[in-house]
Design a protein that fits this description.
By secondary structure, this protein is an alpha+beta fold. It has six helices and eleven strands. It folds into two domains: about 150 residues, no CATH class; about 70 residues, no CATH class.
Length: about 230
């Protein structure tokens, strides 16, 4: 679970909801996987669609969220954050979550086991060490990402690289490829505001979330013949 302290509270003038609390920081009690969730919702006052980020480290809370039927809010995308004890490679890894498989528990245990399919390397993680038994049990799909199926393997690596130069280079090369190798047209596209990207230049979107949006947009353009600006 996430926790914080009373002295971390912020007295903010920007909170529109009187019941909303703002904190300078939170800590995670247990070194375990958690979910970084992008959620869209409709603002009550303006009826406009807005976006917020949710941090959840309890699988039951996550299940309740993705199974909730609401016309006022919906999950956009989910990133799985894992410690080395789960991903086996890095101290912490952030990967676009593609699917969660929930396995029926062993009759002798109450805990359920999970396999997380991600867009990265390795392509999946498991909540519990494989033992040759539980991973062969029946499972059900707890969550499936259908929006970003067009992303190629390792795109998440690019998206969360600490080196923003790598993301910039990737966007430029993708733009050039989009225009059949024409360097000038590709760079012009990458530095021009694009309506379908919120009237932003692709090269301005080098943050992790923005990069994923650009990648998805380019993949959709490849399926068509128009170079939208």
């Amino acid at each position: 679970m996430f926790e914080t302290h009373e002295e971390a509270i912020i007295q903010s003038f920007f909170c529109s909801d009187p019941g909303l609390l703002e904190w300078r920081f939170v800590t995670q009690r247990f070194n375990r996987e958690w979910f970084y969730i992008s959620q869209h919702y409709i603002e009550v006052d303006t009826q406009c669609v807005a976006k917020r980020m949710l941090l959840i480290d309890d699988i039951n809370e996550f299940k309740a969220l993705v199974n909730a039927k609401s016309v006022d809010s919906w999950v956009d995308q989910v990133f799985l954050v894992t410690p080395k004890s789960i991903n086996g490679i890095r101290p912490w890894s952030v990967d676009l979550l593609l699917e969660i498989r929930e396995y029926e528990p062993d009759p002798n245990f109450l805990n359920r086991n999970y396999i997380y399919m991600v867009d990265g390397f390795p392509p999946h993680f498991q909540s519990t060490e494989l033992d040759g038994d539980w991973e062969n049990l029946e499972f059900e799909i707890l969550y499936r990402n259908t929006k970003y199926h067009q992303l190629e393997p390792s795109q998440t690596h690019w998206a969360f690289s600490e080196d923003q130069t790598a993301r910039i280079e990737k966007i430029i090369l993708a733009g050039i490829e989009l225009f059949d190798g024409n360097y000038l047209e590709g760079v012009k596209w990458a530095t021009t505001k694009v309506n379908d990207l919120g009237n932003r230049c692709p090269l301005e979107m080098v943050d992790p979330e923005g990069f994923c949006q650009v990648v998805g947009f380019i993949e959709r353009l490849k399926l068509g013949s128009d170079k939208k600006v």
